[in-house]
């Protein structure tokens, strides 16, 4: 028997229309580095998004399914693109501006982007690539930046503001199928070639509702979210869409992502929420330790994308800022888990829950698969690879303009679940603790050592700024951990001292023998520890390693 309910498609268009009317007064504030930031209301953004859609259709002939790329910082024009492009039935393709040039070329060609919207300040990055991007017909430049390098290139160049001028404020938004592509994002390639994930209108809509649930970020129109996580990193974790649903104000850093301007932004604009990867919070902590600032407006901070060291959480607790740990991936839109503790606990009882990756929402089903392919119990002890499925989880990767979507065996199970490549345990009450990425686990004499556990323990040392641990080949054990450590300024601790410190919380057989001090941990394009690079440096003999007895 079928239901009697209306079958209304879940569309990004609806989120746009809702945000620009019901929450028309909410604002996007973009940092400019000048005396005043730039402010634009949701109503204005909606109107300008409508003009942008008109321009894309009338000037460039953009049709449903065409890919329109953005190479932009987090700012209000980028939000306009977020709504204009999917609402007209085209596909928003956010480009990661930190990728190596050859990967960017690969991605733009693979997606066959027709138009690129670019911030003027990023032209030095785009211009050298353009001769290698045959599908790109139009470049639209937004904001300040020298445009002279574009002269003489075989591409039509437009100014964003001029393009919008005189356009109609209405658009006959098409009736789309909710399963149509709305946006795409390539994985950052931390562990392989970038692969395209294509989000549907439906997946974005449902994911936005989840972001807004109290068990996730749970913000309202009374909040301002400092969106540090880039709009090219899994749709800024869904925030631009979620904010238009409930009127949450956004504070956008544009290109001012360094610790000092971030600290100033927080003190001046007083956001109640922020979202960023651990590296950002490490940097900000060092900044406010040296130059104290009031960060206490931030009632809640969402931290994820890489494991949050418990010592970092503690340090922010002391500053009156509560970090809430979240796990996700490009393939999961990204919201997978969030670490809100169960109700009714004391602060002390909450702590073990807060340092997990968190609990799954109803929309995300999870299972753990052991090395022999069997499903493992949720007992907090049995470690296996995490597999997930749900309405905002990828079921395949984009196969290119003429190719079919593809499902590599190492990424999707035979019954269609996403293999996350993350290894961990789940407690009986559904809290996920990740011990490692499958590729980063250290296999020592048939036992597994968690690189993340060693890193967290090291980063709890008062003289350690950052630490990354990787597996290196060992004649006797197969693999052993190599600890690479960034010391704080003026630190006096030696390797023996660090090992003794680790021995307080780590089993003896897991303690690293190999140590090296480095200036900084190499980072990926989205700010995660780049262990590939460290392993290669070690293999090339580029690290000055001390081996303890
Ligand atoms: P890439 O896979 O290219 O690095 P993603 O941003 O999709 O790009 O990364 C997803 C991965 O990041 C996850 O599979 C996981 O390994 C890691 N990750 C994300 N959040 C967390 C977290 N809270 N704790 C530990 N690891 C995390």
From TrEMBL:
Keywords: Ligase. It holds the Pfam family AMP-binding. InterPro entries: AMP-bd_C, AMP-bd_C_sf, AMP-binding_CS, AMP-dep_synth/lig_dom, ANL_N_sf, ATP-dep_AMP-bd_enzyme. Residues 453-528 form the AMP-binding enzyme C-terminal domain. GO terms for molecular function: ligase activity, forming carbon-sulfur bonds. Residues 36-398 form the AMP-dependent synthetase/ligase domain. It comes from the Bacteria. Belongs to the ATP-dependent AMP-binding enzyme family. This is Long-chain-fatty-acid--CoA ligase. It comes from Streptomyces xanthophaeus.
């Amino acid at each position: 028997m079928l239901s009697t309910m209306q079958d209304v498609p879940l569309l990004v268009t609806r989120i746009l229309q809702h945000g620009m009317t019901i929450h028309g007064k909410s604002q996007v504030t973009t940092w400019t580095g000048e005396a005043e930031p730039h402010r634009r209301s949701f109503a204005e953004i909606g109107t300008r998004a409508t003009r942008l859609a008109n321009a894309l259709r009338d000037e460039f002939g953009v049709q449903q399914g065409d890919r329109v790329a953005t190479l932009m910082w987090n700012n209000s024009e980028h939000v306009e693109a977020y709504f204009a492009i999917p609402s007209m039935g085209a596909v928003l393709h956010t480009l990661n501006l930190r990728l190596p040039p050859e990967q960017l070329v690969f991605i733009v060609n693979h997606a066959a982007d027709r138009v690129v919207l670019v911030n003027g300040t990023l032209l030095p990055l785009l211009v050298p690539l353009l001769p290698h991007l045959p599908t790109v017909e139009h470049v639209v430049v937004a904001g300040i930046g020298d445009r002279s390098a574009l002269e003489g290139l075989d591409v039509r160049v437009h100014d964003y503001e001029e393009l919008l001028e005189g356009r109609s404020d209405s658009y006959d938004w098409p009736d789309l199928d909710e399963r149509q592509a709305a946006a795409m994002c390539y994985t950052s390639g931390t562990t392989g070639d970038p692969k395209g994930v294509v989000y549907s209108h439906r997946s974005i809509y449902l994911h936005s509702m989840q972001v807004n649930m109290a068990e996730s970020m749970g913000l309202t129109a009374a909040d301002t979210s400092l969106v540090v996580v880039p709009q090219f990193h899994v749709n800024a974790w869904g925030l631009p869409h979620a904010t238009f649903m409930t009127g949450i104000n956004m504070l956008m850093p544009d290109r001012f992502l360094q610790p000092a301007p971030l600290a100033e932004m927080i003190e001046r604009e007083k956001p109640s929420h922020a979202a960023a990867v651990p590296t950002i919070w490490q940097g900000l902590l060092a900044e406010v330790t040296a130059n104290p600032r009031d960060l206490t407006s931030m009632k809640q901070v969402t931290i994820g994308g890489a494991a949050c060291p418990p010592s970092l959480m503690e340090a922010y607790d002391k500053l009156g800022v509560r970090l809430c740990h979240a796990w996700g991936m490009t393939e999961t839109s990204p919201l997978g888990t969030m670490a809100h503790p169960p109700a009714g606990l004391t602060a002390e009882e909450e702590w073990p829950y807060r340092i997990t990756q968190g609990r799954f929402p109803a929309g995300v089903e999870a299972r753990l698969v052991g090395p022999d392919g069997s499903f493992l119990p949720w007992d907090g002890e049995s470690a296996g690879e995490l597999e997930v499925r749900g309405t905002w989880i990828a079921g395949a990767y984009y196969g290119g303009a003429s190719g079919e979507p593809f499902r590599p065996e190492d990424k999707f199970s035979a019954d269609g679940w996403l293999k996350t490549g993350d290894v961990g345990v789940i407690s009986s009450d559904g809290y996920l603790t990740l011990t490692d990425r499958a590729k980063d686990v250290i296999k020592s004499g048939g036992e597994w050592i968690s690189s993340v556990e060693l890193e967290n323990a090291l980063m709890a040392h008062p003289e350690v700024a950052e630490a990354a641990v990787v597996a290196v080949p060992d004649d006797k054990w197969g693999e052993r951990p190599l600890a690479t450590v960034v010391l704080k300024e003026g630190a006096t601790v030696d390797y023996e001292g660090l090992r003794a410190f680790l021995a307080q919380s780590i089993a003896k057989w897991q303690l690293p023998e190999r140590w090296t001090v480095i200036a900084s941990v190499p980072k990926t394009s989205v700010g995660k520890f780049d262990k590939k690079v460290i392993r290669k440096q070690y293999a090339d003999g580029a690290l000055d390693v001390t081996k303890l007895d």
